[in-house]
Design a protein that fits this description.
Length: about 100
């Protein structure tokens, strides 16, 4: 048995996927991750902006299984920012406020 050197590059876990010879940079992002214990489901809500020389690109995010995808609005971000600025809170309080509509 012989062993030789192994050369490989490490790719980031989440990354833009532009077409050949195009550049895409993740300029800014805010992420909200919510764990729904009753359904054993993680909600990943992302607001991102990109700088690019193309409008045609994808974004790769590895997941342990095929995710359920749907669009969401940006309503959660100013709400959560307001809570963070007002007080310290427990995640369960945050979830109860959000689900009851007291935003």
């Amino acid at each position: 048995m012989m062993a030789g050197p192994c050369f490989f590059s490490v790719a980031p876990a989440c990354c833009p996927a532009p077409s050949f010879a195009r550049t895409v940079v993740n300029a800014d992002q805010t992420v909200v991750i919510i764990w729904d214990a009753a359904r054993k489901m993680q909600h990943f809500i992302r607001k991102a902006s990109f700088k690019s020389d193309t409008d045609d690109f994808g974004f790769l995010i590895p997941t342990p299984a095929q995710p359920e995808l749907e669009e969401s609005g940006n309503e959660a971000f100013p709400y959560l920012s307001g809570l963070r600025n007002r007080r310290r809170f427990a995640p369960s309080v945050l979830a109860a406020d959000w689900e009851s509509g007291s935003r």
